[in-house]
Amino acid sequence: MNAKPDLTPESWQYRDLNSRAPSLSVLADTLIELAAEGHPVAAGTADLQHSNGLVKFAEAHPDRFVQFGISEQNMVSAAAGMATTGMIPYVATFASFLGLLTCEQIRMDVAYCAQPVRMIGHHTGISMGFYGTSHHATEDISTMRAIADLAVISPADGAQFRQLLRHSATYPLPIYFRIGRGHDPVVYDRNDSFQIGKAKVHGIGKDITIIACGMAVHGAKQAVEALNEAGHSVGLVDMHTIKPLDEAAVLEAAQTSRIVLTVEEHNILGGLGSAVAEIMAESPGRARLKRHGIMDEYALISPPMRLYQHYKLDGPGIRDVAQALL
Amino acid sequence: MTVNTDISAEQIDRLEDRARFVRLETIRLIEIAKVGHYSSVFSCAEIFASLYYDVMKISDDPNWPLRDRFLMGKGHAAVGLFPILADKGYFPEEWLDSYTRLGSPLGDHPDMRKVPGVDFSSGSIGHALSNGVGMALGGRMRDLDFTVFVMLGDGEMQEGQVWEAAISAASHKLSNVVAIIDRNGYQLDGKVDDVMAIEPLAEKWRAFGWEVHEVDGHDVVALTSMLRRVKADKNRDKPCCVIAKTVKGRGVDYMETEPGWHLGYLSPEDSEKARQTILNTRISGGTQ
Question: Rounded to whole angstroms, how far apart are CA atoms B110 and A163?
Fold first, then answer.
């Protein structure tokens, strides 16, 4: 096994399929930590234990791991039933399936019943690239956000995911986590601290404040650095928790900046941009708003890195979108 | 199937009385709502009575961790469950009088957040067996010994998730899961096997890895003996399905022959007639 996994940019797969990037193992490693600390965590997946790394948890705690096979709806409903016995189940599968196929089970059995289930939708957005629309998840923020009593969290990288996962062990509401492929570029240090429901404010710009979530934070950070070097005043808010939304952070940007630009790897309808728009529309503030993301369309077939370029979700793309607003 | 029983005459009387109580209270509560699922409750009144007044291990505490669980896939029969939960003392009987009125904890479908004693909310048909599978898995993880009874409608067999749950319960060898199918033969749009044929039902469950029994769902002796036996069987290494043959609307003759009573409203005069019929009829089997 390679000490450092060797990523193939054209497919975003590892050349050595037995190797695992550190960020891929965040989920299992953190659940193992939580179990060791005495939290009654359990895990389940739907035939994707290698994809989401839960195989490691399964090996460490076979008695607390459930393989559901390819039955996502059964998995979510069963997790809700399991939670009534005092366990905290973490169930993971592709975000495209959790956010749409199991949407009703999440509403009825998890959120309406207020069960402490944590759903992990991985390989979200367009990160599955050429696997196509069936495997893209550009609607999940929208569907999950419409469900009452459910938190929606989109971490920017593995370090942030780890921290927020740790907080989830004692969080009162059910949670939908939206994470990437585990190959996401690093944004944060392991010791940076984050709280569920509290945005990470990197700065508020006089010209533009970018509000981003998930993998878009990395590109947005690059864009902000480039624009500030060019003499503009551009800030960045990492809105990792989309619900409950940090309204104060949105209002600060709306009242300080000329322009608020939202960036997300999601349809611009119903996602982070919509959540920000709702707050801005109902509040006094001078900023105008621009939503950037997937423009209500099905993404093209392509390797993921090329897709991010095409949809201007990488650093240069976000910089261009912001530049055009100045 | 002939079942030997050691159920006392007093207990048989009591179970029949409690099934009658469920039917009478259902009529009373639906008079408040002015619409409700009479016949859906009448087909499973003996199942409710048998479970809550004989088979299930329950206590005065509706949250006792070791209690047996009861879930209902056919959540629309909740109006028949609420009077039992009040009778058990899980909530004040006055709550029943508020049935379906603004802000009442009691609606047409059961809500576990609002109603003590409801082990899981339902209303969207097809989820309950999965919820029960999860409870059994959680009980195994926490080393809690209880049985999970999941009552399913026969129309519910048309939901794909039921079969996902059935596969998983067998695959995980959840021998403490007992599914009870209220096989009354009708669903909203007509006869189940005209709307979407589900037979051969017993063979389907056997093929999915379950132990299967069939019983007359209105014969409290046969039903209770069967449920006691499958609950006590510690040698079974698979989940168990009891197909309870029932009659939709059982107890009120015209409801038994008119499927339109799945959802309906009796005028006060007709309610009184139905009440008298129930009081003067001894229901003991008769589904064959």
Answer: 37
